[in-house]
Amino acid sequence: MSANEHADVVVVGLGPGGEYVAGTLAEAGLDVVGIEAELVGGECPYWACVPSKMMIRAGNLLAEAGRVPALAGTAVVSPDWTRVAGRIRDEATDDWNDQVAADRFAAKGGRLVRGTGRLAGRRRVTVGDRTFEARRGVVLATGTRPRIPPVPGLEGTPYWTNRDAMGAKELPASMVVLGGGAIGVELAQVFARFKCAVTVIEGQDRLLSQEEPESGELAAQVLRADGVTVLTGARARQVSHDGTAFTVRLEGDEQLLSSERLLVATGRQADLTPLAVDSVGLDPTVGTVPTDGQMRAGEGLWAIGDITGRGAFTHVSMYQAEVAVRDILGHPGPDADYRALPRVTFTDPEIGAVGLTERQARERGLRVRTSVVTIASSTRGWIHGPGNEGFIKLVEDADRGVLIGATSAGPAGGEVLYGLNVAVHAEVSVDRLQHMIYTYPTFHRTIEAALGALR
């Protein structure tokens, strides 16, 4: 039996956050082992954030070309998916090859081990027949995988997840999307703009059910304008595939939907059982790893990213990675603070949000004031014309006089969100925000009107 191998820190999972932790600690002079079962860099650069935004950029260009006749003349556009697929393959993913990322980690002094990491007690990780002992500790950053609903008949069919959609060389003629969250609505709009007939099935009574009702209504409106069939309050009862096409039977009626492809976009979940977290006293059945403010999950154990349950976003993982790195290096710093957690659904228009929704605030027993002002009512929105759908919604803690949540939906919703993010994070008083100078004519000037409309 070979002797155990040693390192200062072992990082299990090299997605965006894990790669950052491992690389930064290696650059700081620590002996770091990074363990990755798939591609260094994780879901975001290969199957999620980056390739999906390339798709969205292409779809938005087609939509903008369609708006030319109303504002500037004539335009004729012929969608070509091969351009999009080629850019994803060649520019974003290097044909799903992570050698550049692996070399980058090695150049920082890290040791890459390919395989599935498994805890074997405190500060111990096994990979195959190798065991690593970490002098300072272990960082868990293994992310999540698609949640596949237990719909009868679905298992064993060639359904798609986001990974299959990102790698599609050709678009199907038709597609049913199970799930109306961010992934489902983004891909539904893109595929529809490239002339795929899309139907979205969402079990809740609206799309984007975790966000404000106005956000779900807007998402449904713009998807329908792009030709997407949106079915809310609907669930798949049974799925079948005959070798050529899918058939989806809905609950509660005899409606049948037929499509060439079926995309499952019903959320993501962590699977802690393969990590053997029970070997360090954690419950593998709860689905998340609890951490304190410094991302500690136990003695000599840290966890970051999706598995902490703080939001399946790259920016959350990177933020937590910074906190964990400081703690591992012994540098003082504030605890992780999630009160101003931002997120953006990159539809056209973009739907950005930060902090609490109105419902979440009221459920916490807060006395709130809210307002909703449309982008089209602003000067910039009026100038913009076609494609100016959107709104600003503010949620104020009326007792403290500060914003605790906001939604910025519009042509630049994700960018306009930045100012609202600062306001929520820094707890800037509403009175002070009302006496700020807002640039004219901009989309963000709508915030000033929304502040004045708080009731």
Automatic annotation (TrEMBL):
Domain Pyridine nucleotide-disulphide oxidoreductase dimerisation as annotated: residue spans: 342-448
Annotated cofactor note: Binds 1 FAD per subunit.
Binding positions (FAD): K53, G117, D306
Binding-site residues, NAD(+): G179, G180, G181, A182, I183, G184, V185, E186, E202, G267
Pfam families in alphabetical order: Pyr_redox_2, Pyr_redox_dim
FAD/NAD(P)-binding domain segment(s): 8-321
Entries under InterPro entries matching the protein: FAD/NAD-bd_sf, FAD/NAD-binding_dom, FAD/NAD-linked_Rdtase_dimer_sf, Pyr_nuc-diS_OxRdtase, Pyr_nucl-diS_OxRdtase_dimer
Keywords: FAD, Flavoprotein, NAD, Nucleotide-binding, Pyruvate
Disulfide bonds: C44-C49
GO molecular function: flavin adenine dinucleotide binding; NAD(P)H dehydrogenase (quinone) activity
Source species, domain of life: Bacteria
Cofactor requirement: FAD
Gene3D superfamilies (alphabetical): 3.30.390.30, FAD/NAD(P)-binding domain
Family: Belongs to the class-I pyridine nucleotide-disulfide oxidoreductase family.
Protein name: Pyruvate/2-oxoglutarate dehydrogenase complex, dihydrolipoamide dehydrogenase (E3) component
